[in-house]
From TrEMBL:
<dbReference type="Pfam" id="PF01397">
    <property type="entry name" value="Terpene_synth"/>
</dbReference>
<dbReference type="InterPro" id="IPR050148">
    <property type="entry name" value="Terpene_synthase-like"/>
</dbReference>
<feature type="domain" description="Terpene synthase metal-binding">
    <location>
        <begin position="161"/>
        <end position="399"/>
    </location>
</feature>
<dbReference type="GO" id="GO:0010333">
    <property type="term" value="F:terpene synthase activity"/>
</dbReference>
<feature type="domain" description="Terpene synthase N-terminal">
    <location>
        <begin position="8"/>
        <end position="104"/>
    </location>
</feature>
<dbReference type="InterPro" id="IPR036965">
    <property type="entry name" value="Terpene_synth_N_sf"/>
</dbReference>
<dbReference type="InterPro" id="IPR008949">
    <property type="entry name" value="Isoprenoid_synthase_dom_sf"/>
</dbReference>
<dbReference type="InterPro" id="IPR034741">
    <property type="entry name" value="Terpene_cyclase-like_1_C"/>
</dbReference>
<dbReference type="InterPro" id="IPR001906">
    <property type="entry name" value="Terpene_synth_N"/>
</dbReference>
<dbReference type="GO" id="GO:0000287">
    <property type="term" value="F:magnesium ion binding"/>
</dbReference>
<dbReference type="InterPro" id="IPR005630">
    <property type="entry name" value="Terpene_synthase_metal-bd"/>
</dbReference>
<dbReference type="InterPro" id="IPR044814">
    <property type="entry name" value="Terpene_cyclase_plant_C1"/>
</dbReference>
<protein>
    <recommendedName>
        <fullName>Terpene synthase</fullName>
    </recommendedName>
</protein>
<keyword id="KW-0479">Metal-binding</keyword>
<dbReference type="InterPro" id="IPR008930">
    <property type="entry name" value="Terpenoid_cyclase/PrenylTrfase"/>
</dbReference>
<dbReference type="Pfam" id="PF03936">
    <property type="entry name" value="Terpene_synth_C"/>
</dbReference>
<dbReference type="GO" id="GO:0016102">
    <property type="term" value="P:diterpenoid biosynthetic process"/>
</dbReference>
Amino acid sequence: MSSIHNAEFNSSSLHEVTLRFRLLRQHGFWISADELNKFKNEDGSFLSDIANDPKGLLSLYHAANLLTHNEEPLDEALLFARHHLEVIRCNLKSPLAEQVKRALKIPLPRNIKREEAIYYILEYAQDETYNATIQELAKLEFNRLQRVYLKELKAISLWWKDLSEYVNLGYARDRVVECYFWSYCCLYEEEYARSRIVLAKLLKLTTLLDDTFDEYATLEECRVLSKALERWDERDVSLLPEYLKKFFLRVIENFRDFDDLLEPHEKYRSAYIRSVYKNICKSYLQEAEWSHSGYIPSFHDQVNVSVMSAGGQLVAIGILFGLGDIATNEVFEWAIKKSCTVTACGEVSRFMDDLADFKRGRNKMDVASSVECYMKENNVTSEVALAKVDSLVDHAWKTLNQELFERRDILSIVNQITNFGRSVMFLYHDKRDGYTNSEQVKDALESHYIKPVPM
């Protein structure tokens, strides 16, 4: 990419210019939005001719979604491209019609790579650069990796079966496949098996904790469990209610198992993964305090707590825990101290979840969401509050895009953590909740793990 960035480039093709723009930004190379000026009139508006170039418009739309803060030209490009794609979408032929439909739901920079790969492998046959050998190799590789993932998923499912039967928390969601899916979205490459397994288990243990605080435990039981986890001492099991004793012991046991996966020089990582589990427990407790008292916090306070409970920091440390030497002690410190990447991913998760929850309608004991807190604090309608929260999702993505350049030294890690945000976009787009209501993503899960790409 360095040679592409440094080479002279004089194309007048909208598709070629914006494709280069997107690829360079995705790989951490800063490229100015001025590159698009050749497609504008003197007054700064886009040339009318490009509205009739659907392939170029689609490429412009994807590229503009890599905008950072205070890039008004890319804001304008995004609006222009989206508007014209929506106008012409019904008149497009396959496969461009399907590609535009998917992009208008989730643009490429915000979507999970394996999801788009499922479609593109088949659509590639209609591409002008089609090479049958490349397509065959892509199909073989996708199906081979699918078998790897299915083997891991079976192992995780057996682990969960044993855990769930032992702890016997009947109120807890059975979402082990979805937890693995989240992990797999973050780290789909074959060599990251250790990280995938640890992160999937960590997410499942966190879901059990979340469901306990959210659905079943009394406020006093929440406080006792939080205190026990903070102390991290098995002797405190006697302080817990009977139904939580086995859960508490299994949490500690599983974290010991995580530690056993580490090499001697990696043992320092155990303190970090325990720390984020304790941190998310504290945020669940604060939300329980608010919920049980009927208190509606300020928008600022609600966001501060709920971004932590959304799991960005926990996922980031879970990803790093199983990586190789690239995940240094300094990188762990960067992640634990709420870096821009980690915080922005938590914001994407929180705000997308809140948008879906508001559409669904909250339960009586649910803590007030960011939408409700904004409505109360600013005395505005739900439509205004929803628009505000939706804009905060875009704001978080601008931060994530900025991190591609500012932390290019750890670009692969930034991308892996950002993949959490991408998985959230996939599970929660159109204000659905594909994690809680897994039927909404059943077909997608089957495509990723069960149905091979036809040869």
